[in-house]
Each structure stands twice: as C-alpha cells, then as structure tokens.
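Journal club side-thread
Mid-discussion, someone asked how the predicted structure for our own chain would compare to the paper's figures. Pasting it here so we can look after the session.
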Amino acid sequence: MVKIGNIEVGDFPLLLAPMEDVSDPPFRMLCKEQGADVVYTEFVSAEGLIRDAAKSRIKLDIYEKERPVGIQVFGGNIESMLEACAIIEASQPDIIDINFGCPVTKVVSKGAGAGILKDVDKMVALTDAMVKQTKLPVTVKTRLGWDKDSIKIMEVAERLQDVGIQAITIHGRTRKQMYKGNADWHLLREIKNNPRMHIPVFGNGDVKTPEDAVRMRDEYGLDGAMIGRASIGNPWVFREIQHFIKTGEHLAKPSLQERVDAARRHLQTAMEWKGERLGVLETRRHYSQYFKGLPGFKPFRIKMVTSDDPHDVFSTLDEVEKEFAGYAFV
C-alpha cells in the first residue's frame, strides 16, 4: 500500500494532475467518481493568495467527497510561500503540493514553477521552509530539469526527500521541451531504484492508455501514475486503467448516454461553482473529448463551443442524445 505521509492511496495510485482551468472541483469530482485515487487542484499563486485575489482564493474550495485532495501552490519567494501555506491550511486539504514544474513563461519568469530548476539550492531551501511550516504532508511536482544539458533530477529528488517531502511526482520532460516530444521515463526508473530513495515516486507525462500505466508500474517500477491531458473530457480514463490493472482486460468505452450525462453535469456544477459565464467558457475544452470518435459530431461541437448561453449548450446536448442514440463507441 502506497502512502503519502499517513494517507493510504492505493497499491498503484492514479492521480489527477493539477491543470489550470481544468482541475476545478466539478471536474475533480467526476474523476474521483471514476477511480482517481488522489486529485490535485489547479495551481494556486502564493502571491495571489496573499493579495486575496478572488481567482486564487476560489481555487482553495474543496469538497469532502473528493478526498484525499492536494492543493498545489507556486511561487518563487520563500516568505510569500510560507504566508500562502498558512492560508492554504485553513482550507483543510489533505496534502500541500509545491509546483516546481509549470513551464509557462509567466510563471517561470518569476522564478517559480520550472523556473526554480535553475537554482536547486533555492528549490531545496523553499521546500525545507514549507515542510517546517505545516503539519500536512508536503509533496512536490517537478520536471527532469531546465533543459537536456542541466538535468539534476537525481540530486533534486534526494535533497527534497532529505528535507521532508512525502512524495515526488516527476514529469518526464525538461522545461525547454514544454509538452513536445516524448516523455522520458528512464530517469524516473533510476530515481526509484536509487537505494537512498524511500518516498513514493510518481510518474507523469504520456500516460494515455491502460497499457501506459501498467508499463510505468511494471517496467519502470514507479509507485503510481499522475494523469493530466489524457483526462480532459475523459474522466473514465481512471476507471479504464483501474479495471485493466485488476483484470488485464479493457473495459467497454462509456456509452453515449454516459457521455451526455457527464457533459450536462459538468456544465451544471461548473456554473454553480464559478458562475454562468466562466462555467460555460471553461467547460468548452472538454466537449471534443467527451464525444471523441462520434461521427458527424463537428457541427454540434461548434454550436457548443461558440454559444455563451448555457441553455443553448444544454439544448445541443439534447440534440446529440437524440441524433446519436444507440451509437456504440469503440
């Protein structure tokens, strides 16, 4: 049984990755219901929390039914991160995760996210301070390094473990790669096989199918898999992987009715949580994947992603339900 601190998370846990404008409470609940063992929030700005910015504060909302849940925070200033840590604790998450992996320029330029990979000493000092600040288990998500010529992930993993993190998730790409090329899991295996390492090592990057997750476990020896982009519009990826791990067989694809019901519920809960406008806008990215493989879906998708009126979206979902009734996905 894998543990993050004292929290049991399964024999080979599947974790929902923190993704901006994706890993919000409505989507996290869908993924949890479909077999995600641990879910993480969208990444939260430490500076935003300190300024009491509404966009940052709302990301601290968590529901009991999604536990165990980790709140992920990013920032490049130790004092700000400690102040944010106290604010996060008040939301009573199960885990605090530090983002040392986000590759986007607006984060990196502030010395946060993957930007801190250029300064391993600061990375360790910040983590040490956070671990000492909170009684909650602290985990870290990071990348292999800044670029292929400055990969220090073995040193990073050891030193972060030494200051007290309870698990590490490693995306198998450098910052320079962003999300291009293939994730390299070989270094992740070396870290897991390092006799000095005793905390869980989770893999991230290119886990798209049940076979990918099993390879990550059996060939690379990792303790769990964090799933990001493959879950967008596809919360069923978690149950499909869980089923494959247990039986070695593929689960039937979700039915049209399941997909329509999930899209409806996702939109409804998103509007209830963040308001009608943002609820409509931020669920748009999921529709293509909810109905991926459905022939003739394009005109319906266009209507769903161009209307700002939720009634139009719900009406279009009704049309999809009627037009494609009985269609079997393969």
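Post-session note: Residues 256-323 form a domain with the Non-ribosomal Peptide Synthetase Peptidyl Carrier Protein; Chain A fold (CATH 1.10.1200).
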